[in-house]
Inverse folding.
C-alpha cells in the first residue's frame, strides 16, 4: 500500500468508520474454545474488534494494521476494558511481519493472497489459522466491489495447502448487523512434528 492508502484508512477511522462494528467475527467466536491459549496475531486488525475479544479470552495479542488511527482507537478501548494488546503499525504489503510464533493467527476480511504463506510460516506446531475473506459473487452483497479484493472459489483452501483443514465454507451469510456478505471461511491447523 502507498502513503495514499495509509491516509485513506486513517481518514476513515478518524471520521468514525466501523465504529459500530464491535462484535468479533462469528467464525472466531465459534472456534476460539478449541484453540489453546497462547500468543495470537490479529492481521489487518483495524480498530481491534477481534483483538479485544482475544485479549478478554486470555490470549497475548499482537494487533497489526496500516492505520495509526485504528490502532489508537484499539489502545483506548483496550485500556478502558483493562486489557493489554500490543499494536504494530505496518504496511502488510511491503513491511516485515513480527518475528514471533503464534498459537493463533486471525485474518478477517483483508485480502492478500501473497501474505498468507508468510503468515502460515509464523504458526507454531498445532497453531490455528482462522481466515474469513470476501468471496467473488454476482449477488448484491456488502464489501468491496473490486474483484481484486475478493477471493476466487476454493482459492483460500488452496492457499492453506499443507495445513489440516478443520472447516472450509463458501457462501452467503448474514452479518450481525443484518447485511448479507459473500464469504470464504477457513479454519486450519498446522500439524505438529513428531
Amino acid at each position: 500500500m502507498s502513503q495514499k492508502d495509509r491516509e485513506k484508512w486513517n481518514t476513515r477511522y478518524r471520521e468514525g468508520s466501523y465504529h459500530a462494528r464491535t462484535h468479533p467475527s462469528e467464525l472466531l467466536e465459534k472456534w476460539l474454545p478449541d484453540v489453546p491459549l497462547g500468543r495470537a496475531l490479529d492481521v489487518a486488525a483495524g480498530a481491534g474488534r477481534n483483538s479485544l475479544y482475544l485479549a478478554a479470552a486470555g490470549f497475548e495479542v499482537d494487533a497489526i494494521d496500516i492505520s495509526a488511527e485504528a490502532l489508537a482507537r484499539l489502545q483506548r478501548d483496550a485500556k478502558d476494558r483493562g486489557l493489554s494488546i500490543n499494536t504494530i503499525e505496518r504496511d502488510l504489503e511491503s513491511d516485515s511481519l513480527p518475528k514471533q510464533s503464534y498459537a493463533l493467527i486471525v485474518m478477517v476480511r483483508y485480502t492478500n493472497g501473497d501474505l498468507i504463506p508468510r503468515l502460515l510460516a509464523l504458526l507454531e506446531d498445532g497453531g490455528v489459522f482462522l481466515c474469513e475473506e470476501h468471496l467473488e459473487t454476482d449477488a448484491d452483497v456488502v464489501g468491496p466491489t473490486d474483484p481484486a479484493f475478493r477471493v476466487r472459489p476454493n482459492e483460500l483452501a488452496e492457499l492453506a495447502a499443507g495445513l489440516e483443514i478443520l472447516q472450509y465454507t463458501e457462501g452467503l451469510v448474514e452479518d450481525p448487523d443484518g447485511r448479507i456478505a459473500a464469504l470464504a471461511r477457513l479454519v486450519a491447523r498446522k500439524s505438529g512434528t513428531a
